[in-house]
Design brief:
mainly alpha, globular, dipeptide transmembrane transporter activity, transmembrane helix, cell membrane, MetI-like_sf, BPD_transp_1_N
């Protein structure tokens, strides 16, 4: 176990270093000139060269990467030109919103998706199976921004069943102290039940949207994994002993596919963290996705690099943690 953990740690360090090199290289190849972002198009040549020297852009790329790496170790990701604040501070403010949205969506998608996947495997080929498979196929096909706009138009603008864009209404936006950055926790700690209900109502539409896309993948993969297990010999033995189909699925099949389920849930969670850009834009959700969108339109390379690194680090850490959990919980991988 210690050797496995050491190997995983070494692989993690190499992966993060590779991610840093690739991110820096893509930033260096970007057509956006960070000097012009500061001095403007009408600055003199001497001013341009002076700012370029101050930023260290007149040095070789190897030296630029070394300085960036050293600053990164000290927690310095540079200053975002769009906000005028340190990129790290912006990311700390935006990341809890994305994490809250992605985690709640994963919980909804996992609970409903696993249940639907098991039922589809139990009643494979039935009308229920066909309907669920059609809905999951739509979940993997329909553009997420279009469905988000449709949900806002129907449930918020016309029916007024839920709150609109943003995390809180204006009346609560500045009255609730942002202690943790998570809207549900902060409104709960504020002691104002109306603020908590308001935060919950703002989460309904984006969580339902991302949860639908999550359960689409989880349902299909759970169904396929269950059907694969149902054809094995130990299932035949369980049936010979008189076990019902649902008992076989819940007590025998699901424990044997837990490694697959953990992997699927990890992939869905990371895709929610990195792929919520359009959802956050549609619902004006102040997370990493919206922050990166604003940085892209502003040509803010420091903010883009910082946001990309955060998402990449989350992706690497979650996948490595999943590998460890699969090895610990599934004796067949030993």
């Amino acid at each position: 176990m210690l050797v496995t953990l050491a190997q995983s740690g070494f692989t993690l360090v190499l992966t993060l270093l590779g991610l840093l090199v690739i991110t820096f290289s893509l930033s260096a190849l970007s057509p956006v000139d960070p000097v012009l972002q500061i001095v403007g198009d009408h600055a003199s040549a001497s001013t341009y060269q002076q700012v370029r020297h101050q930023l260290g852009l007149d040095q070789p790329l190897v030296m630029q990467f070394w300085h960036y790496f050293v600053n990164l170790l000290h927690g310095d990701l540079g200053t975002a030109s769009a906000t005028g604040q340190p990129v790290l501070q912006d990311l700390f403010s935006a990341f809890p919103a994305t994490l809250e949205l992605a985690t709640l969506s994963l919980i909804v998608g996992a609970v409903v998706g696993i249940l639907c996947g098991v039922l589809c495997a139990r009643y494979a080929g039935s009308f229920f199976d066909t309907v669920i498979r059609t809905l999951t196929l739509l979940g993997n096909s329909v553009p997420i921004f279009w469905l988000g706009l449709l949900m806002l138009s129907l449930f918020y603008a016309r029916l007024q069943w839920s709150a609109g864009p943003g995390r809180l209404d204006d009346i609560y936006q500045y009255s609730v102290e942002p202690r943790t950055g998570f809207a549900l926790i902060d409104t709960w700690l504020s002691g104002d039940p109306e603020a908590f209900r308001n935060a919950l109502s703002h989460l309904v539409l984006p969580v339902s949207l991302l949860g639908y896309y999550a359960l689409a993948s989880i349902t299909r993969l759970t169904r396929a994994a269950c059907l694969s297990e149902l054809g094995k010999e130990y299932i035949t033995l369980a049936r010979a002993k008189g076990a019902s189909e649902m008992t076989i699925l819940w007590r025998h099949v699901l424990p044997n596919i837990r490694g697959t389920l953990l992997t699927v849930l990890a992939l869905v969670w990371t895709s929610q963290l990195e792929g919520a850009v359009l959802t956050e834009t549609v619902f004006s959700w102040p997370g990493i996705g919206r922050y990166l969108t604003t940085a892209l339109f502003a040509g803010d390379t420091k903010a883009i690099m910082g946001g990309t690194l955060v998402i990449g680090i989350c992706f690497v850490l979650i996948n490595n943690l999943t590998d460890v959990l699969v090895r610990v919980t599934d004796p067949r991988t030993h």
